[in-house]
Design brief:
By secondary structure, the protein is mostly helical. The chain has four helices and no strands.
Length: 68
């Protein structure tokens, strides 16, 4: 896993926590959009940077749409 992926994972974690803490009513959408990252996938790099970026953007969009 490269540094970009680590950064994206950190941002995804932060956004997920923000939803859980500040917008609990949006949690039901997390299950619909969540990507599963198992330790096996991390070790074999099956989850790529584009997938992480797309998921991060999905979370950001979810928050932005809810706030507006």
């Amino acid at each position: 896993m490269n540094s970009t992926d680590n950064k994206l994972l950190s941002e995804i974690t932060s956004l997920t926590r923000k939803i859980e803490d500040n917008y609990p009513e949006l949690q039901k959408y997390l299950d619909e959009n969540r990507i599963t990252i198992s330790s096996q996938n991390l070790n074999t790099s099956r989850i790529n940077t584009d997938e992480l970026l797309n998921y991060k953007n999905t979370l950001k969009t979810l928050i932005d749409k809810y706030k507006n």
